[in-house]
Amino acid sequence: MSPVRPLTPDCHCCAGIDAATPRRLDNPPGLSAIAYRIGRHGDFLESIRARLSSADYPALAALTSREESDLTLALGDALASSLEVLGFYTERIANEHYLRTATERLSVLEMARLIGYQPAPGVAAGTHLAFTLQATPGAPVESITIPAGTRVQSVPGQDEEAQTFETVAAVPARADWNAIAVQTVTPWRPQFGDTALWLDGVVTRLQPGDALLIVGADRLSDPGSERWDVRVLAGVEPDNANGRTRVRWDHPLGSVFPAMSPASADVRVYAFRQHTALFGHNAPDPNLMSLRGSNIRQRIDTDITPWQWKNFAIDPDAIDLDTDNPEITAGSWIALVSNEPGLGSAALPGYTELYRASKVMHRSRNAFGISAKVTRITPDTTENLTASRYPLRRTLVLAHSERLATVDTPLAHPVHGDALTLGRRVEGLQPGQPLALSGQRQRIALTAQATGLSLVLDEGGSTALDAGDELFLLAPAARLIGTTPVALAAETFAALIGLAHVTLRLNLLDRDGRRGTLVAKGSDIRLAANAKDDASVTEIAYIDTAHDPISHDRDHSHLKLQAPLQHVYARATLRLNANVAPATHGETVEALLGSGDASTPDQRFVLNQAPLTFVGANTPSGRASTLEVRIDDVLWTEVPTLYRAAPDARRYETSQDDAGHTSVRFGDGREGTRLPSGESNVRVRYRKGLGAAGNLDAGKLTTLLSRPLGVSEATNPAPATGGEDAEPRDRARDNAPLTVLTLERAVSIEDYADFARTFAGIDKAHALWIPTGPARGVFLTIAGGDGAVVPESSDTFHHLSDALTRYGDPLVPLRLVNYADARFRCRLAVKVGDAFEPDTVLDAMAARLRAHFGFARRDFGQTVTVDEVAAEAQAVKGVVAVHVTRLHRLGQAPAVVPRLFASLPVASLTGLPPAAELLTLADDSLELEVLP
Length: 932
Hints:
By secondary structure, this protein is mostly beta strands. A hairpin with a 4-residue loop joins strand 10 and strand 11. Helix 6 packs antiparallel against helix 7.
């Protein structure tokens, strides 16, 4: 007899006798969806069949059929199907009851309302509008007022809609504020060490080697004065575009020994048109002559050896020039140059003395064995007119002085920093007034001696530069002292150009629009003239409000700005427009909503136009409504809710549906007073229009819809920023709990970050407490919607700063900075399944990677790893295998870096920390290749 074999767990002989439902549910925290279904169709059907075989139900013992066509089993299958549907919807309902797992917008909004949170309705973009006024030549300068509500519309591009902006404040405007030039020239006065000056006109008949005299009233009044200079030109450079000529010389003005200083009063410039000699310079050598039978002995001094002509020396009272030049007249200047080696300069050796002709005679002279026509000059002084100083044979005479007209010296250095000197005196400007600046970036050219230079690109890599290449200056230059950069003022930078011992660091833009850094010697670069087709850049700057920011002299106005300029401008191209007004997206609507009825509680009206405009403000939410409601011409007040409002309070509350339509609800007599009865006595004034569509580029707003008297043009010099659509579901999910944490106050360091995240126009924020040092206080890094930069001049930036000061601790220093936008490159080799189309799979992979590593899904300081990239790519349907062949940050050499770090600010006792980094996939930097 064989032994009985024991039953094993895998023999399946007991299958179908145990219930498979309810399933055990396990939901750890942090899930994006919870499991709430106790079973699926198959599980329910198995449980029903197990009950049919259970000994607990003896009445079913006779039911032995297990055929699916059996009526009882068919009823069980139908019941399992019903339970499947019921379980599905039960799970969906359960998910919709939790903020993290809800997928329906209505669910998120209703749960947010339980804690008093209202989804943000969006906010209007803001910018500044610069107006151009019609100017009438000769007409007196009069100021007009550009009223609030002046409308300007954008010119839409393809697939765009026109957007309307309105000014929100009345501003004064003048025609002479249209295009104010900065100072481009400075009055010319010779200074010790000068080596150049500018002359009027381009036809000066000057060339290198000509001599120039710079003299003034000092020498005219005092013949013994040494305040004058004679220089030999090394270069003549006509400027045809501006009708002037630059002349330069090598030997600087002034002299230490002998002590000479440039002219100081009534300075005039003369060109010596004639180089000549003294009479007798070409006299024959008397030692070569025979004295026999000749009366020449009477003219030669034979008592000295070698022989010399009698009186062969300059006459201090009558200087005879070896020329007969009728252009030399009384009052003209001559200069005598001794031509002695070891004295003077290389271009004008020897001792030089200046004389003014008191009397001029044109005559013939016979002496020293020669005869010629001479010009006899009686000088205004006999200083140094000795034979030893000026021998007849050696002396050079510079004569025939012709006066040349000078012009003011052009300022060549660029414009940047926080101070501006205007090209003229401008009246009426006020502290805090916005200015629209427009001009071309300063060009930099490489000199002929510049070799081996390269531009280190911000995006990674470098590009070689050749002599003659021209680039644009993006930021103020810095001088490298060792490895430490020292920022340079514009004048200092211009003075260092050309010096070989100076090392400069420049942030430049090349002709292909790539940004980078160049380290070069001062002698490797020069300032270059701009081309007419160079692109202009614009910005808004504000006159400072402290320390007397506006001052005047006789010819110029000087302005101190609140912050340094964003660009480096070529001086000659920069223009300022002071006819600037703040403006926001939206246009004004006035309407009659209806009639009040005192017998009806909770009267409700819907605004005809949508969406209602909300503008940026320093409120806890960062926005304020533009709605004004007047009942019988009396202004009522909006409140968040009518709950517990006084029975006689003139209050109303508003709400918005998903379509953006706004409803206005009034009280019932117990909470808020009822509307008084009247015919069409409910009147509203509001603005319509908001959202991200208002975030327009600079120069897009150009169409005047309302034209104040005298205004001819308008534009927005700076982009419109801060526009935000109504809060989407996912952001409401994240922001709703934050309002409970902060309760509209910023106390802890986390509160500052949470407060900023829920503020209109701010998407992400990171806060750091710095207890001591120069950066003491709250250091807050912010990012705008979709990663946009929040300009320091924007309303959003100022409103957030004001709100945190108002609702936080006003005694705690606060510093706001924009985040550091870090990018990385990625390359993957992909094996695609044989049944799938490779292009479709690669497109899906690219979309998944860009979404996962895009701004919306990343946070400050979040790292990127090879494993994360591979996992996201592998999750795409149709992918068999993935190999990451390149992963590195922009600016790094191509490689596979296992983990890319994004830095967060760290408190420092010595300086400001860098802003928080947010690491995302760079645009057009994803490379996908298919493996065979």
